[in-house]
From TrEMBL:
Residue span, Calcineurin-like phosphoesterase domain: 3-200
Pfam family, one: Metallophos
GO MF annotations, alphabetized: hydrolase activity
Name recorded for this polypeptide: 3',5'-cyclic AMP phosphodiesterase CpdA
Length: 282
């Protein structure tokens, strides 16, 4: 038996501290959960693609968690794969280097009881960067060597409604990369795929693969995709052939309304807003 806590979409910033209190609630929950590890599944920052300070701030915050921490980048950390939701923040080598400077790696393997957990950088899929190819090769090696039930963690969902969707949307992986990844997964023993990004909890199984969308820590879903958009934290208890999923919503966790924070259209991005640093951050 192994317990993993998943915190996703924490969206921290030293200058725009709207979600700092939610982070403190999530951190306290994780510290008390007797977890073997905490996975932080992307969107650690708000303006990570253009700010050294934000990525460093998120790294410091994660360093204060009691358990071992495994972090993965999201579009708010290293930028989006093209075409992306913001043409000014497309993933590139400099943005990856900034992440590497604070987190050392954007992909990892972790054993949890009888399961193997594999974390990848979702933003590389469809990016055309050299690191996309090396990650593909690495993933092939990890999946063929696993020899046990495997769970894949990545920031973005692989698809929205179904594996054969050809929808091009910044809400999920681009179709060309998706087809290649699903082909890989079908040849492996990947039973669980855990993603964030859409800020909602949804749990659906397609074929032998369970696609779990975990809720955000920072703010509620802006758009319903068939899930529960309230903020939350996720507990995964891995046993021999099974994984038990529990979504916890500590009372103090506030499901912030992003549109209201941005003044209902007054600001396009949170980073454009006047500074509002977190209280007592550290
Ligand atoms: Fe997010
Ligand atoms: Fe995201």
């Amino acid at each position: 038996m192994a317990r993993i806590v998943v915190l996703s979409d924490i969206h921290l910033s030293p200058t725009h501290g709207f979600f700092w209190e939610n982070w403190c609630v999530a951190r306290e929950f994780a510290d008390g959960a007797k977890a073997d590890a905490v996975i932080v599944n992307g969107d650690l920052a708000i303006n990570g693609p253009d700010s050294d300070a934000e990525i460093a701030f998120a790294a410091t915050a994660l360093g204060n968690l009691r358990a071992r921490v495994m972090a993965l980048p999201g579009n708010h950390d290293v930028g989006d794969e093209p075409p992306g939701q913001d043409p000014d923040q497309i993933i590139n080598a400099d943005r990856l280097a900034r992440w590497d400077g604070s987190f050392a790696t954007d992909r990892w393997v972790l054993d949890a009881g009888d399961w193997r957990l594999v974390g990848v950088n979702a933003q590389l899929f469809g990016s055309g960067l050299a690191r996309e190819q090396s990650q593909d090769q690495w993933l092939d090696e990890q999946l063929s060597a696993a020899g046990r039930p495997t769970a894949l963690f990545l920031h973005k969902p692989v698809f929205l409604e179904g594996p054969i969707d050809d929808v091009l949307s910044p809400s999920c992986m681009v179709p060309s990369a998706r087809a290649r990844l699903l082909d890989r997964l079908d040849r492996s023993d990947v039973r669980l795929i855990v993603s964030g990004h859409l800020h909602q909890h949804r749990d659906r199984t397609f074929g032998g693969q369970r696609h779990l969308w975990v809720p955000a820590v920072a703010f509620a879903a802006a758009q319903a995709r068939g899930g529960d958009g309230r903020c939350g934290v996720t507990v995964l208890d891995f046993s021999q052939n099974n994984v038990e999923v529990t979504i916890e919503r500590p009372r103090e966790l506030v499901s912030h309304d992003l549109a209201a924070i941005k003044g209902h259209g007054r600001y396009q991005f949170l980073r454009d807003m006047p500074p509002s640093p977190p209280p007592h951050a550290g």
